[in-house]
Specification:
The complex is a heterodimer of chains A (about 525) and B (about 260). Chain A is an alpha/beta fold and about 525 residues long. Chain A folds into three domains: about 240 residues, P-loop containing nucleotide triphosphate hydrolases (Rossmann fold); about 150 residues, Rossmann fold (3-Layer(aba) Sandwich); about 70 residues, no CATH class. With about 260 residues, chain B is mostly helical. In chain B, a hairpin with a 2-residue loop joins strand 1 and strand 2. The chains are: A alpha/beta (about 525), B mainly alpha (about 260).
C-alpha cells in the first residue's frame, strides 16, 4: 500500500494557545483508506486535518516540531496552492465555504484554478452535482439552499477538483439522520470508484463504525487509539472515559434498548396533565415571500409539562412552526393561543416571560461581555427590581453550574461552545418562562456535552417546565423526549408518544429517523 | 438592457450621469429624463410594480425636500422675486433663478436615480462579477466583490437571527424610544461584527484550503461574456454623446437651442 500521509513525531501549538494542541503524533495513512477521526471537543481533530491539508503550518502561525509528509511533499516546504488542489478539505460550516454567488460558480471556482477548459469545467460541474444528487441546482444561490444542500455543494465543489485525499470535518452536522447516512454512503461510493483516501471527523460513532476501515481516537492532542474499526468498540473503558458514545444498537438489539429508555422516561417523576393546553394551534398555514409553503393547515395542542421533540426531514417546517409559538412569525392563516389567549395579544416583553427560546448557535444569542451581564440583561431590560435580579442571577448560575466559569473567564468570548450554549440557556431561563424551546441543542457537540446539556433540560422538565426541542439526533429523541411531533413538507403527520414512534417504522421513515 | 454586456450596462449609468451633470439647460435635462424613462420602458423593467413603487415614492418625497431646501437656502438673485423674508440672520430669497436652479438639481437627481434603479434591477451581482472578469479585471478584485456580495447576504441573515434572538429575550424594537432603539441596534451590530469576523476567517481558510491563489497564470474562465455588435454600437453612441455634451458645455450652448438654430 502506498503511504499518502505520514506524521513523524509531529507537535503543534497555535501562537495564541498555552499548550500543545498536537503532541508527538506518529501516524501513517495509506491510499484508499477510509479513516474515522474521533475524540471529545478540543481533542485536536480539526487541527490534525489542517496539518494534512497544509493550512498548518503554511497559513497558520504557531510552534512546530517534527514533520508531516503528504503525497510525498513535506508540508513545511510545499506550496499551499498545490496541496490545496490535491487534498480536499470540507469544513463543518458549509455557509462559510460558499464564496461565489451561485452553485455553478462555486464549483467552477476551483476548476478554473486548475486551468481546465470550459467544456471540461462544464462536464465536471454536471458530474459533481449528479454525484451529490443536486442536478439542476446550477443557478441556485446559497440563500435558496437548505443547510444539507449547502453541505452537498461543499462536497461537490471539492470532488469536482478530483482530489487525491478528501478530508471532511463534521460534514453532516446540519443533516437529518437519513441525509447523514446518504452522504457517508456517497463518500464510500466515491472512495471505491476513485481509490480515494478519505479522512472523516465525526462525533457519530455509528457512522464511523459502519463505514471506516480504521479509527483514530484523539484526546488532548494525543492519539489514544489507532486501529481497525472492529477493535475500536472493544475499548469500552477508554471510550467511556473520553465520553465517546457506544452505539447500543450495534452490540445489542438497539430499538429495544431505546424503547426501554423511552418507557422509563414516560414513567418519569413529572406527569403531564392533559387539561387546558398551554399552546393551541388551529389551521395554521404559512408561506415565505418566495412562495415556499412552509406550513399547511396545522392544528395541534401542547399541554403543560410535556417534553416534546419536533422531528422531520430538513426543510419540513420545524423552525417555522416554533417561530409561530412566540410570535416571531405571524400566522397568515389560522390561530395560535398561548394559555388560552391569542399569541398576538402578548407584547414582546410578556412573551419573553412565557416562552424561552434557545438558538442553535449560541453566538447569535450572546452579546454581553461577562456572564453576569449576559444573565442579568433580560431582567434589567424588563426593569426587574435589583434584589430580584440578584436573587434570580444566583439561582440560575448555580442551577446551570456556571459560577466557576465566571471566576475563570473575564469575557464570554473565551468560553467553549458547550458553555456558551449553557449560558444562552441561563440567559433565557432567568426570566422563568413556562415553556422552553431549544432549536437543535446537539449540533456539532460531542456526546458528553450533549448528555450534560440534555440532563439540564430533563431536570427543568422535572421542575414542571414544558420543554420543546427540535432535533435530528435519534439518541436524544429516544432518551429524553416523551412525545414526538412529526412534520413532513409543512404538514403535521402525527403527535404521539416516543415509545409508540419507536415501534412504527413507517413514521420513522417519514421523519427521516434512523439509528444507523 | 439585461441582454447587454454588464460593462455596457455600467457605462450607460455612468456616462448618462456625467452628461446629466454637464448639461445645465432645463430643456436638455428634460429630454435626457425622457430618454432615461424610454430606456426603462424598452428594457421592460417593472419599475412601477408594487415592489418598486414604495422606493420610487420614497425617493420622490426626498427629492421634493431637496427642491424646497434649495429654494430656502439658495439665495440666488433673479429678475422676478417670488418671496423674500428675513428670519434672524437667515435671508430667504426665492426668485425665478432659484426655482430654475432647484429644478435643474432635482431633474439631475431624478435622472441618476432612475439610471441606478434600472442598473440594479437589470444587473445581478453575478453579471457584474463576470463582466469585470471578461474585461480582464484582476481575479482578486472580482473575488473580493463576490465575497462582499456573499458577506452582505450573510450579514442580512445574521441580522434577522440576532434581532429575533434579542426579541425572544424581551427586547422591544417597534415600540421602543429612539435612544433605546439606537442602543438595541448597537447591541445587534456588536454581535454581528464578532460573527462576521469569525466567518471571514473561515472563508479565508476555505479559499486557501482549495488552493485558490489570487494570481495564477494557469487560471481559465468558465463564463464567456463576449462584447456584441449592439454593445459596441451603444458604447460608441454614448461616448459620442458625452463628447458632444462636453463641447456644448465649453461653448456654453444648449442642445435644444443649437438644434433650433440649425433647423
Amino acid at each position: 500500500m502506498i503511504t499518502v500521509v505520514e506524521f513523524n513525531d509531529f507537535s503543534w501549538k497555535y501562537k495564541a494557545s498555552k499548550d500543545l494542541v498536537l503532541k508527538s503524533i506518529n501516524l501513517k495513512i495509506s491510499q484508499g483508506e477510509f479513516i474515522g477521526i474521533m475524540g471529545p471537543t478540543g481533542a485536536g481533530k480539526s487541527t490534525l486535518c489542517c496539518c494534512i491539508n497544509g493550512l498548518i503550518p503554511l497559513r497558520t502561525r504557531g510552534w512546530i516540531k517534527g514533520n508531516v509528509e503528504v503525497l510525498g511533499k513535506n508540508t513545511r516546504t510545499a506550496k499551499m496552492t498545490e496541496l490545496g488542489q490535491r487534498i480536499g478539505l470540507v469544513f463543518q460550516d458549509p455557509e462559510t465555504q460558499f464564496i461565489m454567488i451561485t452553485v455553478e460558480d462555486e464549483i467552477a471556482l476551483g476548476l478554473e484554478t486548475l486551468g481546465l477548459d470550459r467544456v471540461e469545467i462544464k462536464n465536471r460541474i454536471e458530474w459533481a452535482l449528479k454525484l451529490v444528487g443536486l442536478e439542476g441546482f446550477e443557478q441556485k444561490s446559497p440563500d435558496e439552499l437548505s443547510g444539507g444542500q449547502k453541505q452537498r455543494v461543499a462536497i461537490a465543489s471539492i470532488m469536482a477538483m478530483r482530489p487525491e485525499i478528501l478530508i471532511l470535518d463534521e460534514p453532516t452536522s446540519d443533516l437529518d439522520p437519513i441525509g447523514k447516512y446518504e452522504i457517508i454512503e456517497l463518500l464510500e461510493k466515491i472512495r471505491k470508484e476513485f481509490d480515494l483516501t478519505i479522512i472523516l471527523v465525526s462525533h457519530r460513532t455509528e457512522k464511523i463504525v459502519q463505514f471506516c476501515n480504521r479509527v483514530i481516537l484523539l484526546d488532548n492532542g494525543e492519539i489514544k487509539f489507532n486501529g481497525e474499526t472492529s477493535e475500536f468498540l472493544k475499548h469500552e473503558e477508554l471510550l467511556n472515559k473520553l465520553g465517546i458514545y457506544i452505539p447500543i444498537h450495534l452490540s445489542q438489539n438497539g430499538i429495544s434498548q431505546y424503547l426501554k429508555f423511552s418507557e422509563q422516561i414516560s414513567k418519569g417523576k413529572y406527569v403531564t396533565t392533559e387539561q387546558d393546553p398551554i399552546i393551541e394551534i388551529s389551521d395554521l398555514s404559512f408561506a415565505y415571500p418566495n412562495n415556499t409553503q412552509a406550513l399547511k393547515d396545522i392544528s395541534l395542542k401542547i399541554f403543560n409539562g410535556e417534553f416534546i421533540a419536533i422531528i422531520g426531514k430538513n426543510g419540513s417546517g420545524k423552525t417555522t412552526l416554533i417561530k409561530h409559538f412566540n410570535g416571531l412569525l405571524r400566522p397568515q392563516q389560522g390561530e395560535i393561543f398561548i394559555n388560552g389567549n391569542p399569541v398576538l395579544q402578548y407584547s414582546i416583553t410578556q412573551m419573553a416571560q412565557i416562552i424561552g427560546f434557545c438558538y442553535q448557535n449560541p453566538d447569535h444569542q450572546l452579546f454581553k461581555n461577562t456572564i453576569r451581564e449576559e444573565i442579568e440583561f433580560g431582567l434589567k431590560n424588563l426593569k426587574f427590581p435589583d434584589d430580584e435580579i440578584k436573587n434570580r442571577y444566583n439561582e440560575i448560575i448555580d442551577l446551570l453550574d456556571l459560577r466557576k466559569f465566571e471566576e475563570i473567564y473575564e469575557s464570554t468570548f473565551y468560553l467553549s461552545k458547550g458553555i456558551r450554549q449553557r449560558l444562552a440557556l441561563a440567559s433565557v431561563l432567568v426570566l422563568k418562562p413556562e415553556i422552553l424551546i431549544v432549536d437543535e441543542p446537539t449540533t456539532g457537540q460531542d456526546y458528553r456535552m450533549i448528555q450534560e446539556f440534555m440532563k439540564i433540560l430533563q431536570d427543568l422538565h422535572e421542575q414542571k417546565h414544558t420543554i420543546i426541542i427540535i432535533t435530528h439526533d435519534p439518541r436524544v429523541i429516544a432518551q429524553y423526549s416523551k412525545t414526538v411531533i412529526i412534520l413532513d413538507d409543512g404538514n403535521l403527520i402525527q403527535k404521539l408518544p416516543t415509545s409508540e414512534f419507536l415501534k412504527n417504522e413507517e413514521l420513522q421513515k417519514i421523519a427521516a429517523y434512523t439509528l444507523q | 438592457m439585461t441582454k447587454l454586456h454588464p460593462i455596457t450596462r455600467i457605462s450607460i449609468v455612468f456616462i448618462l450621469s456625467i452628461i446629466a451633470f454637464l448639461l445645465s439647460n432645463i430643456f436638455d435635462l428634460i429630454i435626457l429624463l425622457i430618454f432615461d424613462l424610454i430606456l426603462g420602458i424598452l428594457t421592460k423593467i417593472p419599475i412601477f410594480s408594487r415592489k418598486f413603487r414604495k422606493i420610487i415614492i420614497g425617493f420622490l418625497i426626498a427629492n421634493v425636500s431637496v427642491f424646497i431646501a434649495w429654494c430656502l437656502f439658495g439665495k440666488i438673485s433673479g429678475k422676478i422675486i417670488f418671496f423674500e423674508a428675513f428670519i434672524g440672520n437667515w435671508h430667504i430669497l426665492i426668485t425665478d433663478q432659484t426655482i430654475y436652479g432647484a429644478s435643474i438639481v432635482t431633474i439631475r437627481v431624478i435622472i441618476m436615480f432612475f439610471l441606478m434603479l434600472f442598473f440594479f434591477i437589470g444587473t445581478s451581482d453575478r453579471d457584474l462579477i463576470h463582466g469585470l472578469r471578461s474585461i480582464k479585471v484582476p481575479f482578486a478584485v472580482s473575488l473580493i466583490i463576490s465575497i462582499t456580495f456573499r458577506g452582505l447576504s450573510m450579514f442580512q441573515q445574521e441580522y434577522s437571527i440576532v434581532k429575533e434572538a434579542m426579541m425572544t429575550r424581551g427586547v422591544e424594537f417597534e415600540h421602543a424610544s429612539i435612544p433605546r432603539k439606537i442602543y438595541n441596534f448597537i447591541q445587534i451590530f456588536m454581535v454581528i461584527i464578532i460573527l462576521m469576523f469569525k466567518k471571514t476567517e473561515d472563508m479565508a481558510a476555505s479559499i486557501e484550503s482549495r488552493g485558490i491563489p489570487f494570481r495564477s497564470k494557469n487560471r481559465t474562465t468558465y463564463h464567456y461574456f463576449p462584447f456584441q455588435k449592439k454593445d459596441y454600437t451603444i458604447l460608441i453612441g454614448l461616448f459620442t454623446l458625452l463628447l458632444f455634451s462636453i463641447y456644448l458645455t465649453l461653448i456654453n450652448k444648449s442642445f435644444v437651442f443649437l438644434f433650433l438654430e440649425l433647423f
